[in-house]
Predict the structure of ATP binding microtubule motor family protein.
Amino acid sequence: MASSDVKPTPCSNLSQKVRIVARIRGFTDQESKSLNGDSARWISVHKHKGDDGSSEKVTIAFENQSASHRDANEMDYCYEQNEDNGLVFSREIKPLISNVFDGQHVTIIAYGARGSGKTYTIQGTEEKPGLAALAIAEVLSMVKDNEKSVAISLYEVIQDHVYDLLDPTHPEVQVLEDAQGRIKLKGLSQAKPIVLSRSICTTNLASRSCQGANRFFTSSMKKTKASVKRVVLSSLPKGKLGSVSASVKKPTSSRPHFSEKNTSHLIKGRKLYDEGNNLSSSMQAESRSNIASVMQSRFLSDIGAPSLPYLQEEETLISDDVSASLPMSEEKPISDAFSAMLPITEETSLVNAVEDTKPIEEKHVSLYSESNQSEVTSNIDENMKALTYLEDGYNKEKENKSLPMNEVTEQNLIVKDKWEVAHCPSGAFSARRSGFKHSLVQDYLKFLNSASKEELKGLRGIGEKRASYILERREESPEPFKDLDDLKDIGLSAKQIKGMMKKVAGDLFS
Ligand SMILES: Nc1ncnc2c1ncn2[C@@H]1O[C@H](COP(=O)(O)OP(=O)(O)OP(=O)(O)O)[C@@H](O)[C@H]1O
């Protein structure tokens, strides 16, 4: 049982770049039953002085651990069962948010075994919003107070690949490094939350955004003039990361955020977390622990690229043959939840912290100021797209509903939860099928972007003439084929593209 004399340490020491806190989740009714009511004394929390003699630390020990192993579970603080998301937020996260507006980067990661409370902590519920929802609400409130504007991106990192979750096709995003060594995710969509007067309870709205608001305005980042080079993500052999990035900038009244022409351009949206959630849930093994840890890493602006701190440079192109499927995690003892909690310094990236372990799942929220990106973003040609949404399940899509910026209301943002759909067999099948389709399309496009003429000619539906067109297009434009619509550049109609993809998929079962 946790000791009650440990008081939370407010997160105010900015010289400490990483703060690691644990959170104890109580037993569920089912777990209590399986323990026959013997749930006491399974964990103990000891308060003591840190190595420097002044800071306070806690050491967490499990009853079945040896004394030597207990020493390893030292961290900055531990929240107990009765301490809610609001308290964790106000103690750990809120003090950092003003730093984001000063150009610093803040990353919050929940790490722990399946069922340990990561989602509860980061996402929360409508009634009890999690850290992400509370952080977004706080950012929006500060934006309003300080007359700034924000844009939000949502992407998922799976092994070496980054996928744009705001774009309904979940395209892979190129990871580039500019001349100053700052990491850029090329083409990553940005949604501009609308601050509603009279983005309405902000907390409520932020919570909905976090859980997958059904309508978004996305702005695609176009060409930048900055010099860039490609980088590759370090492999996270058994984990995945999903990230919400909020960039903050001063409003530029002279330049509208999107062109009027493009606001009626419609693409169909999908719940933010649907596919990722489903995949992670269905593919993870049944390991459980009662601890979720929240790691905060504070990266000062001069460090460079904190929204993806685990990036490593590679001279060659990113390997294209890694599939988007998630690895199976293994049955893990409770203590593994702590084994990755190494201090992160400027020299020690997040991937260093986890690469020797078998992470089960991480949920990751990154807030960063766009002030560090001014050089690049000043050249962005923003292209707004309005997204519609799925109303009943995954297959019934609402089409042709435009959503002009000035008509955004709370009603438009109401979310119909697809969580249950994603967790029932038909929902799982539907999501996996859609993931398969996405992977196939992405791999096909990658092939078109890199294959030789001979290889292209050998692909069904391409032939000599189109192979030449593809090569010409590749020479003419630095932009790779990013979606099937781009194939119109090589003289294929939408119908032909569809037919071609059917053949490609059909070949798999022939
Ligand atoms: N601090 C908490 N207080 C009360 N209930 C909690 C707490 N943390 C988690 N729970 C409950 O425990 C269950 C598992 O939590 P949650 O889904 O957040 O775990 P998770 O780590 O995200 O799991 P997974 O890895 O499968 O996604 C949920 O029913 C959640 O409501």
User: Anything to note?
Assistant: Residues 447 and 483 are 12 Å apart (CA to CA). The longest helix spans residues 425-450.
